[in-house]
C-alpha cells in the first residue's frame, strides 16, 4: 500500500534520513521505533509531504506521492496525527474536527462520522464548544486522533500517540489505535514505548541515525537480544 524506496531527507545539508526503505501493506499496523533523534518523526513528515526528498521515492497505492503537497497526500487518503498533538488551540473542539474533514464535500457523511466518533470519544462531545487549547493533555490527544479520522483515511500516521500521557491513558490510546486498525484502517505508528509498540504491531522497523537497521515482525524484534538490551530495558 505504502512504499518508501531509498529516501534521503536533509535539514539544510545534514541528512536526517539516509536511504530509508520500508513498506506498509493494506490492513497492517507497522511501527517505527528508535532512540531520540533517529529520524522517526522525519519519516512521517516526509510521507505527509511536509519535507522534500533529496533522493528516493514514495508511492501510495501505486501513485507517486514523493514531493507532493500535504493536501494532495491527505486527498490520497493519508492522515497525519502529529507528535505533541498540535490541535488548533484557539479553535473549538467542533472546529478542530471540521478541519480534519476540510477536503471532504460529503457534508452529511461528515456530520454522521462526527456523531460516530462521539461514541468512542464522549469527552469530546461534552466539550464541543470549548477551545481546544484548554483541554487536558489526554483530551487533546483524543481530539488529534479524532481529527485525523475525520478525513476517512485509508492510512493513519501516528507520531508518538502515548507521549506525555498518564499510564491509564497510554493504555487507552493504544487500545484506540488497535481498534482503528481492526476496523480496517492501515496504521503506521512511531513510538518511544518500544515494548508496547512491538507487542501490538504486525511488523516493525528500527531506525538508528537515520537508517533502517532492523526490521521484522513485532514478535521477532521483541525476541531480539540486542533490541532487548538497547530498547526494552532488559
Ligand atoms: P524524537 O523521538 O526525539 O522525536 P525522532 O526519531 O522522531 O526523535 P527526528 O525528529 O526525525 O527524530 O529527528 C532526526 C534528526 O533530524 C535529529 O538529529 C534532529 O536533530 C534533526 N532535525 C529534526 N528536525 C529538524 C529541523 N527542523 N532542523 C534541523 N534538524 C532537524
UniProtKB/TrEMBL annotation:
GO terms for molecular function: ATP binding. It comes from the Bacteria. SUPFAM superfamilies: P-loop containing nucleoside triphosphate hydrolases. InterPro entries: AAA+_ATPase (IPR003593), ABC_branched_ATPase_LivF/BraG (IPR030660), ABC_transporter-like_ATP-bd (IPR003439), ABC_transporter-like_CS (IPR017871), BCAA_Transport_ATP-bd_LivF (IPR052156), P-loop_NTPase (IPR027417). Keywords: Amino-acid transport, ATP-binding, Nucleotide-binding, Transport. Residues 2-234 form the ABC transporter domain. Signal peptide: none annotated. PANTHER family: HIGH-AFFINITY BRANCHED-CHAIN AMINO ACID TRANSPORT ATP-BINDING PROTEIN LIVF. Belongs to the ABC transporter superfamily. This is ABC transporter ATP-binding protein.
Amino acid at each position: 500500500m505504502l512504499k518508501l524506496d531509498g529516501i534521503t531527507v536533509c535539514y539544510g545539508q545534514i541528512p536526517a534520513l539516509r536511504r530509508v526503505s520500508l513498506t506498509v501493506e493494506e490492513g497492517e499496523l507497522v511501527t517505527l521505533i528508535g532512540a531520540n533523534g533517529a529520524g522517526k518523526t522525519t519519516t512521517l513528515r516526509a510521507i505527509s509531504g511536509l519535507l522534500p526528498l533529496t533522493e528516493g521515492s514514495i508511492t501510495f497505492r501505486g501513485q507517486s506521492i514523493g514531493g507532493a503537497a500535504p493536501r494532495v497526500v491527505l486527498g490520497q487518503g493519508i492522515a497525519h496525527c502529529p507528535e505533541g498533538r498540535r490541535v488548533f488551540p484557539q479553535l473549538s473542539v467542533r472546529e478542530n474536527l471540521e478541519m480534519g474533514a476540510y477536503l471532504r464535500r460529503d457534508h452529511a457523511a461528515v456530520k454522521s462520522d462526527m456523531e460516530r466518533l462521539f461514541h468512542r470519544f464522549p469527552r469530546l462531545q461534552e466539550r464541543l464548544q470549548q477551545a481546544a487549547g484548554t483541554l487536558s493533555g489526554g483530551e487533546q490527544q483524543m481530539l488529534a486522533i479524532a481529527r485525523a479520522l475525520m478525513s476517512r483515511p485509508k492510512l493513519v500516521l501516528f507520531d508518538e500517540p502515548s507521549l506525555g500521557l498518564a499510564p491509564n491513558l497510554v493504555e487507552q490510546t493504544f487500545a484506540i489505535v488497535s481498534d482503528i486498525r481492526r476496523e480496517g484502517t492501515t496504521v503506521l505508528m512511531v513510538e518511544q514505548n518500544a515494548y508496547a509498540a512491538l507487542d501490538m504491531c504486525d511488523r516493525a522497523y528500527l531506525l538508528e541515525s537515520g537508517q533502517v537497521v532492523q526490521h521484522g515482525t513485532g514478535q521477532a524484534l521483541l525476541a531480539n537480544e540486542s533490541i532487548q538490551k538497547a530498547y526494552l530495558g532488559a
